Each structure stands twice: as structure tokens, then as C-alpha cells.
Amino acid sequence: MAIADTGSTDRQLAAGARRPNRLFKNLNSKIAAIPMIFVAMVVFLGGTCWTIFYSFTKSGLLPNTNFVGLDQYERLWSSRKWMVSIENLGIYGFFSLIGTLVIGFTLAALLDRKIRGEGAFRTIFLYPFALSFIVTGLVWQWILNPELGLQNVVREWGWTSFTFDPLNNPDIVMFGLLIAGLWQGTGLIMCIMLAGLRGIDEDIWKAARVDGIGTVKTYVRIIIPMMRPVFVTSLVLIGSGIVKLYDLVVAQTSGGPGISSEVPAKYVMTAMFGGQNLGQGFAASTMMLLMVGIILIPWAYLEFGGKKRG
Amino acid sequence: MKLTTKLLAATAIVAASGAHATDLEVMHWWTSGGEANAVSKFADAWNATGNVWVDGAIAGGGDTARPIMVSRIIGGDPPAAFQFNHGRQAEELVEAGLILDITDVSEAEGWADIITPSSLLDSCTYDGRVFCVPVNIHSWQWMWLSNAAYENAGLDVPTTWTEFAASADALREAGVVPLAMGGQSWQQNGAFGVMALALAGQEAWLAVNQDKNAEVVMGPEYTRVFEAFGAARSLSDGLNVQDWNQATAAVIDDTAGAQIMGDWAQGEFALAGEVAGTDYSCLPGLGEVALLDTGGDAFFFPVTGDPEIEAAQKELAALLLSPAVQVSFNSAKGSLPVRPDVDLTTVNECTQKGLDLLASGAMVPAGTQLLAPDTVTQLNDLMTEFWSTPSMTPAEVQQQYADIIADAE
């Protein structure tokens, strides 16, 4: 203790004498961080500002600076397709978040019970994640196709009135997408959860057992609160997957039937490249950023702001 | 030493062959059976000149392919040539100076004299300079009917839309889906365009599409179209397909009665070995108003800055319009040649009907030549929503259609 105290006093004295510029403190690591800072500033921040700037113009196939004020936003919010997109994202986001977390955690907890062949199951569950969304979308398009897939198989088994045709029913098409999304996404979350479960000290389990607490109750009351950082990581991964939902829709339904499975990212792509209307696409992507901001900023403030970690 | 000599020799061979043959990457969205067959005629002709055709086919139709092409051109990695529909789709690329000016090829080959109708070349011309090669004439204005489906149901093959609509119930009772319709929005909006021209007539159609007159959309002629289109919605129940050629396949195997689709569908009938008149029938203008819209495909050549590629691009441009290539390509594609001085090798009944209409001048410009892509996208969205939402009334969609036309440029 005494030695440490003396050391820190010495350093303070030295600092007072030479007053080194804080900018050059730890110079090597700052130089190493320059590329990252450059990417963050120019690519992310610069790109964002550029997009917002041009969302106030009447840019067509190519950007121009013919300003039209808020016209693009007015058209965006009066468009039926945009409203349907937002609603669909809400439905998909809500069920995908809950579903992925619940299924992912349940699978992880089951694997954590030291079952036989854990490695094989883990690989099987994680395998869909190795596929691209395009492949997943096509596979599930076939499985959900009434003439080829599930409906046909069940009918051949003898249940001839069985009807399961979500992709052609505007009311439930989002759930057809959700099935494919969950199939693809839960494996990764399961692995992250499993790693989190393995990080829990054996002694916690022993203590719970000594106190006579049941397994399920131990998970819900003790283990899950201890896994908070793992849940935060999972939430970020799931959340970013929801907002950028695009390729699955393109592969599985291409927004149909009608416009009933449109999503905001697809609206942006169609406006920018199909309709050759960059201004409209930029306005839509700015709104997407704003929505993410509205959800993310208060949450990030609560999660990382108030208290210092470490 | 020996190895070095071999390597040098190999390098020399590669260099020598590189000097003569130019690889040109050509992007297009012709991927259905009939289309792929047609595009191979271009590729064969180009390869026969000692150059190499690098095929850049993109599956999924124009709405998928165009964004990929545009992003590659804007991103500075353009293909040597790409397919667009003529008209307003490439307007801004030309204005931005990204497309090669091929006026010299056009003048040398005398395109102004041979291309018929001249509106096709006009659609490639911006400020008096030529920027694209129209390769075919396609018309949306057709309905294709399965003769066998009607015979099996004990019905005569309809000759007008009115007869078709009246026979739909009897066809349904015989277990046949009356109207095949793919799930993609461009197909539904396209079919509406066909019905609009056929049922509202040329004058009203031009007032809406050319003059952007929203009052005509609310007028009695168009009201009739919206009601007929609304009534047609239930006719496609029971057939869930996405791509147009899957819908055509349903007409080919007689599980569907008819399809409203452009003449590119004929390539599919030909590939399946069907004969016009005996296996299938065709009604230009739905049998109501026999008019063809003359849209089609055109090739554009992006500016690359490489003189060698530029020379090859101009060579390809001239080749695409040469008489032999026009005949082989258009025979396979089911489209009509852009030059009247060639004879198609196999002219069937339907193609002959089309040629006669063109010769008599019964034609209007295509929707893609008149409406900006932004407007087309909005109309696609509207019509596909209407098609798949039974609770949406024709009056509602009519009002929204009028709003879009009023805002169109």
C-alpha cells in the first residue's frame, strides 16, 4: 500500500513538472486507432450526413441539389406502402425478438443439462445460420408452398382438409417470414446463451441445490439476471437483424401478396433503384435511422450511461 | 531455363489472343427458357466474330436487374453493355454522361431509315444524339388462351374480353383457373394497362399516359376499366405463382384458361412445342381494340474510357441490328424485328397478326416510353395492392390512381 502510494505521488509530481500534452499520451495506440476513427467519421457519420442532406432534394437516379424541402417526407408518410412497411417491421420485430430470445435460451438451457450428443445438436441448431438469407428464404418458400411443401405432405398423410398457406394470405404472411427468420436466427443466439450459461460458476448451482431451489426457478431467478451482458449482446444482434430485414423478404415473397409483406429496407431499395428516386429512398432511410435512434438512445443511456462499468 | 521459355511462350500466346478478341460483359435479365434461347443467338453471333460474349444474366426480372446494373455503372465498374427497356429508364444516366454516344454507328448504318417504327429510335435519342440500340419490338397488348382448356370445358375459345369474362364461371366449374396471373407487381399493373387501352380506347389511354390528365382517370371510360379489373381479381384464385413464365406454363399445360401478357410469352409457347391457332390462341388488344404498344428492349453501352472496348462496343451495336441477327434473335424471342426489311424464318399466326397491325400503323408508344420509372413504381404498388386485397373497391383505387397521375412528370 505504502509503496503504491509513493509511486502515484511520484507520478503526479513528474506530471506537474513536465505537463505532457494529453494528446500524445499513449501515442502508439492512438496512431493505431486512426484508421478506425477515419472509417467511423467519414464512412458512417459522413455517409449519414450526406444521406440526410440529399433527402431534402429532388434527386432522381443520380443525386442533385434541387431542394424541395420536406416534400419527400410528406410523400413518404402519405404512402400506403410505407405505412404497411412500418407496421410489418413492428410485427416482425416484436415476435422475432421475443421468439428468438425464448427459443434460443430454452435450447441453450436444454443443452446445458449435459445431455448426450451435445456437440451434434449444437451443430444442427447453428447450421441454418451458415446459410444466407436468400437460401433460407427460397427453402422456406418451397416448404410453405401449398402445392409442394408442408400442406401437401400433411394432405397426403390423409388429413385432406389441412390448410397452411401463409405466404399467399396477406393477413398472416409476416408469420411465414417469421418462421424462416427464427429458423435461421435462433441457432446463433442459442450458442451465445450457452456460452453465457457455461460462464456461470458451478458453486451457484450447488448453493441453489443446497437451498432446495428448483431447476426452473434457479434459471429464472438467479441465472438469467446474472447473464445480463449476454442478453444485451443478443438484443443488439437480434435488433440489427430486424431493422435490416430485406433479403429474406425478397427471396420469400418479394413483398407480396400485393404489398402485404413490404418492409422499410425494401421500400428504400425499390424507391432508389426501381423507381429511380434517390430523394425518396434517402428520406425513407433517414426515417429508419430516426426510428432506430428513438429506440436505441434512451436504452443505451440507461444501459451504459448512468453507472460506470468495470 | 526450359521452364522459363515455356512460361514466356505461354505469356506470348495469351497476349496475342488478347489483342484480337475483346471480352464484353453483357448484362440482361433474360433468364426464362425462351429468353435464354434468344439471347444465345446474340452470343453466338458475337462469338463468331472472334470476340467473347461474357454473359451477365440476372435472374428475377427487370425490377431486380436494373438496380444491380445502375449500381455497377454509378459505382465505376460498368459492364460493356446492358439491356434496358427503351424510354425514360436511362434518361439520367445519359444526362450524366455515363453512356457511350453511338451516333456515328447509327449514321454509318443508316438506322434512321431502317428502324420502324421511328419512335423506337426516338426513345434512344437524347438531344439529337443516339445512345442505345433498339433490338426488338414487344407489345403488352396480348391475351393468350389455351384452346384445350376451353374444349375440355365444352366452350368456344373467346374472341373478346367480354366473351372471356362471361365464360369464366363455366371454366371455373370445369376445374380450370380462368386467368393466370403472376404475383409480381409489374405483371398486375401491366395487365391493367392492357385492359385500359383495350376497354377505354386509344384516346383516353393517351390522355392519361401521355398528357397525364387525371380527370380522364376519373371519367366514365376509365371507370369501366377499373370495374372490369376489379371483377377479374377473383379469376386468378387458386393459382399461386410469382414469375410470368410460371403463369404462362399454366396456360401451356391447360390448367389455366388465359393470361394477359406481352408477346414475349410466345417464346415460352414455342419452346414447349405448342402451335399457334391449334394449341393456343392469341387476342391482340384483348380482341376489343386491336392496337399494339411498341415498347421493347434496347442495349446501352456505358462509357469505359478504354478505346479498345469502345471499338468493340460499337462493333456489337452494329451487329445487334444486322439482318441475320435480327431474324434469329426475334424468331426465338417471339418479338418483332425493328427493321421491316427482314423476313422472319418462322412466322406463325400470332406473329403475323402482330406484323399486320404494325404494317397498318395501329400502334401507340409503350407505357415505359411515356411514364417515368418513379410513376411506374407507384402504379405497380397500387395495382398489386388492389389485386390482392379483395376488400379494396374500384372507386378507391381509381382515386389513388388519379392522384399518382396528377403528380406524374
Helix and strand topology:
The complex is a heterodimer of chains A (310) and B (409).
Chain A: H1 2-18, H2 27-54, H3 71-77, H4 80-111, H5 118-126, H6 133-144, H7 150-156, H8 173-198, H9 202-210, H10 215-226, H11 228-243, H12 247-252, H13 264-274, H14 278-305
Chain B: H1 2-20, E1 23-28, H2 33-48, E2 52-57, H3 62-74, E3 81-85, H4 91-95, H5 103-109, H6 111-114, H7 118-124, E4 125-126, E5 129-130, E6 132-134, E7 142-146, H8 147-152, H9 161-173, E8 177-180, H10 185-209, H11 214-218, H12 220-232, H13 244-252, E9 256-260, H14 265-271, E10 280-284, E11 292-294, E12 297-300, H15 307-320, H16 323-333, H17 349-359, E13 363-365, H18 367-370, H19 373-388, H20 394-407
Parallel strand pairs in B: 1-2, 1-3, 8-9, 11-13
Antiparallel strand pairs in B: 3-12, 4-5, 6-12, 7-9, 7-10
Helix pairs in contact in B: 2-16, 10-12, 10-19, 12-20, 19-20
The chain-level structural class of chain A is mainly alpha
Structural class of chain B: alpha/beta
CATH class category of the largest domain in chain B: Alpha Beta
CATH topology of chain A: MetI-like fold
CATH architecture of the largest domain in chain B: 3-Layer(aba) Sandwich
Write the CATH fold name of the largest domain in chain B: D-Maltodextrin-Binding Protein, domain 2
Describe what you observe in this structure.
The complex is a heterodimer of chains A (310) and B (409). With 310 residues, chain A is an all-alpha fold. Chain A has a single domain, classed as MetI-like (MetI-like fold, Orthogonal Bundle). In chain A, 71% of the residues lie in helices and 0% in strands. Chain A contains 14 helices and no strands. Chain A has helices at 2-18, 27-54, 71-77, 80-111, 118-126, 133-144, 150-156, 173-198, 202-210, 215-226, 228-243, 247-252, 264-274, 278-305. Chain A is flat, with a radius of gyration of 26 Å. Chain A starts with a helix and ends in a 5-residue tail after the last helix. In chain A, 30% of the residues are buried. The model of chain A is unreliable at 1-9 (pLDDT under 50). By secondary structure, chain B is α/β, with parallel strands linked by helices. Chain B folds into two domains: 24-138 and 295-359, 3-Layer(aba) Sandwich (D-Maltodextrin-Binding Protein, domain 2), CATH 3.40.190.10; 142-293 and 364-407, Periplasmic binding protein-like II (D-Maltodextrin-Binding Protein, domain 2, 3-Layer(aba) Sandwich), CATH 3.40.190.10. Chain B is built from 20 helices and 13 strands. Chain B has helices at residues 2-20, 33-48, 62-74, 91-95, 103-109, 111-114, 118-124, 147-152, 161-173, 185-209, 214-218, 220-232, 244-252, 265-271, 307-320, 323-333, 349-359, 367-370, 373-388, 394-407; strands at 23-28, 52-57, 81-85, 125-126, 129-130, 132-134, 142-146, 177-180, 256-260, 280-284, 292-294, 297-300, 363-365. In chain B, the strands form four sheets. Chain B has a five-stranded mixed beta sheet, with helices on both faces. In chain B, strands 8-9-7-10 form a four-stranded mixed beta sheet. In chain B, strand 1 (23-28), helix 2 (33-48) and strand 2 form a beta-alpha-beta unit. Residues 10-19 of chain B have low confidence and may be disordered. At the A-B interface, helix 13 of A face helix 3, helix 4 and helix 19 of B. Chain A: InterPro entries: ABC_transporter_permease (IPR051393), MetI-like (IPR000515), MetI-like_sf (IPR035906). Chain A: It is found in: Cell membrane. Chain A: Residues 86-301 form the ABC transmembrane type-1 domain. Chain A: Belongs to the binding-protein-dependent transport system permease family. Chain A: Its main location: membrane.
